[in-house]
Request: fold
Amino acid sequence: MRSLITAKSHNGPTINKQIVLNLITKGGMFVLNIIAGLWLVPYLIRHLGIAGYGLIPLATQITSYVGLISDAINNAFARFLTINLQSGDVPKAKQTFNSAFFSITSVLLVMFPIALVFSYFVPSLFEVSAEYVQDSRWLFIFILGMFLINTFSSIFTVSPYAMNRLDLINGAELLSLVCRISIIIALFTFLKPSLQQIGISYFASAVVMLIAGIILWKKLTPQLSIRLKDFSFFEFKNLASTGSWLIVNQIGTLLFLNIELIVVNKLFGAADGGKYAAVLQWSTLLRTLAGSLSVVLTPVILTYYARGERTKLLNLTKLSVKFMCLALALPIGSICGFSYSILPIWLGPDFRELAPLMMVMVSHLIINLSVLPLFAINIAYNKVRVPGWMTLIMGMGNVVLALLLPGMGLGMYGVALAGAIMLTAKNALFLPFYSSSILKIGKWSFIKAMIPGVAAAVSIGAISFIADWLFSIGSWLQLFMAIAAVGAVYAGAAWFILLTRDERRTLRSLLPNNIFRNGGDMA
Reply:
């Protein structure tokens, strides 16, 4: 178990050392995103109003629908390029890169005029306050432009992804985040705040990310260049084959995750849409945290697959599901338990009544985010057809429930509850069993791995709720101290009770001090 991750990567450092660097930088980015989110949401609500703010997350969610095809091709591209580079097949890597480059670029050129037309009709498609009609058009134009640029830049950032240099991607994302927030502050300070300025900040941050992506691409994969003669119809067919099923999966995922704000906006109006969007930020933060942890593991899993190291792949996947669930138990349990204090401290006393909504949005994530490492198995083994259909069917079911439950007296809670029911049904019942069948292991392996974390999240939530009721927490300092106290007890219990000796040994092997003491080789 201790030698789980010891191979040298083609880029020099041991894989385990790079995992630690990736985790540290991802963790840093997550902390910065939390700080930015906690400060930025009330800042924007204060300057734009709740109805104006609600259009921002709505616009960012709509972009996901625009990029279905390009995103799917890009995900397939990441799989094939990682396998090509890690197996040392440079000619094939050149063909994969250029096939993806010209395919995605063509899609983006078609999408650009569509995005412009869609942005013009935004006030007619959604509930928009009269004062924000023109601004909403500019907001969508710039944010859709941001998405198109980010999609184009992802062609280049696949190179550091394939070389397992996520720390460099994280550095580029940091520059992008600083750029966006700095522009918002500057424009809001010297000009009258508007949604158009938010759009400008997002667009500028995308340009920064594109420049950084091109630099990383040239630095890490100088063997790759843009050449039309390296376009291969065979490689394009491979990308399209995998990508087509990823599109199906992507549509289903969007019906799960990106339908909420649209339904709430249409059923309950812009003001309630803004409230829902504000509370949704905590779910988004948790998804960002889990995604950050999962994305660190994905290139390693693809590398093991490319090298035929099945035992390491299997061990890493099982451990990652358990570790993910245990790691998420504290933030998920704390957010649910302290929700009646978090919302008034963060946004004001008027938002306290939305604490049950926050619990519905967040509680089910202990299962639905813990299974994220399993998606890498589907991609590595190119088993994406069945998950694609299942995600699409369940996503359609989510839309139906989201439209039906609010009419049963549940209001906005019905929309959140629909997502919780359908997403949990898919990720608790289908995905763990399907991944187990791919790996040819016991069908209950991943379910068993999640049980300690789920139990921990429920316990932390209950303890936090009682502590909140007893001590009437009223400030960020008191809240952080309470969470720290609960976290300290949980850390000890998780280490000595919920983890086995072999699992503790594996975690110790990933500590930075261990790396430096053994010269980067943690065999």
